[in-house]
Amino acid sequence: MSIEIVMMDEIRRKSRERPPPPFLLSSSSLLLLLCFFFFASSS
Questions:
Q1: What is the pTM of this model?
Q2: Which of 2, 23, 28, 43 has the most Cβ atoms closer than 10 angstroms to its Cβ?
Q3: How would DSSP label each residue in 1-43?
Q4: 20: phi > 0 → left, psi -120 to 50 → alpha, else beta; which?
Q5: Distance between CA atoms of 36 and 29, rounded to whole angstroms?
């Protein structure tokens, strides 16, 4: 097993344990806000 494969496996394991980056969270909350405003204005 070469060093590159070990490093890639380590990076993959770290990225799996790490929570999603903040820009993903903010974009999803922005989408929720947009949907909320859309439903509020349509009703």
A1: 0.40
A2: 28
A3: --HHHHHHHHHHHHHHHSPPPHHHHHHHHHHHHHHHHHHHHH-
A4: beta
A5: 10
